Amino acid sequence: DGGITQSPKYLFRKEGQNVTLSCEQNLNHDAMYWYRQDPGQGLRLIYYSQIVNDFQKGDIAEGYSVSREKKESFPLTVTSAQKNPTAFYLCASSIGMTSYEQYFGPGTRLTVT
Amino acid sequence: GQQVMQIPQYQHVQEGEDFTTYCNSSTTLSNIQWYKQRPGGHPVFLIQLVKSGEVKKQKRLTFQFGEAKKNSSLHITATQTTDVGTYFCAGGGTSYGKLTFGQGTILTVHP
């Protein structure tokens, strides 16, 4: 089955720790994205990548970092610099950046205490 | 930057009633997409509109894109309990085709 996988579904961390969320796709899509979802705020773009070894900051990149070493993988690191890291994180991919539907993974719910 | 506003934030309806959510952009859009997120789930693509004044239908769902390509609406006729979820619009601008999502409308359908 083709799709996007994110793991784990739930993640708990102590404040001050970095944590990496995984995102893998087997759709052969060039573009990948990370969004953050908070209640009442919709989806906000953290980072996106149009092609391997290239990525761009989205609207709320501060406190986050990414890498795109393989086409299939786009991990997101939530660093200790992120002031409010508790959220639902969604990874998505699309064939390309322009005018293509995005396919979303099941998401990771991160809780930092 | 581009902003996409969506109203209402919440909508409670009785099963069988109609439902509409509206989306307005601060800038002209190249396209608009609609997604549905079931409770506890992830967003799933519904449709994309590209042309000015475009209207598309999917069974009981009707999607419209405004003439100025700055607003859009989703109308559901005769809601069913399976329509429950959050509906998002997402506007495509000119900057690398990034999507800007609206805040979403949470639809509750009472049987």
Helix-strand blueprint:
The complex is a heterodimer of chains A (113) and B (111).
Chain A: E1 4-7, E2 10-13, E3 19-25, E4 31-37, E5 43-51, E6 54-57, E7 64-66, E8 76-78, E9 87-94, E10 103-104, E11 108-112
Chain B: E1 4-7, E2 10-14, E3 19-25, E4 31-37, E5 43-49, E6 55-58, E7 61-65, E8 71-76, E9 85-92, E10 99-101, E11 105-110
Parallel strand pairs in B: 2-11
Antiparallel strand pairs in B: 1-3, 3-8, 4-5, 4-9, 6-7, 7-8, 9-10, 9-11
Report on the architecture of this protein.
- The complex is a heterodimer of chains A (113) and B (111).
- Chain A is mostly beta strands and 113 residues long.
- Chain A has no helices and eleven strands.
- In chain A, the strands form two sheets. In chain A, strands 2, 4, 5, 6, 9, 10 and 11 form a seven-stranded mixed sheet that branches. In chain A, strands 1-3-8-7 form a four-stranded antiparallel sheet, with no helix packed on it.
- In chain A, strand 9 and strand 10 form a beta hairpin.
- Chain B starts with a strand and ends with a strand.
- In chain B, the strands form two sheets. In chain B, strands 2, 4, 5, 9, 10 and 11 form a six-stranded mixed sheet that branches. Chain B has a five-stranded antiparallel sheet with strand order 1-3-8-7-6, with no helix packed on it.
- In chain B, 0% of the residues lie in helices and 56% in strands.
- By secondary structure, chain B is mainly β.
- In chain B, 37% of the residues are buried.
- In chain B, strand 9 and strand 10 form a beta hairpin.
- At the A-B interface, strand 5 and strand 10 of A face strand 5, strand 9 and strand 10 of B.
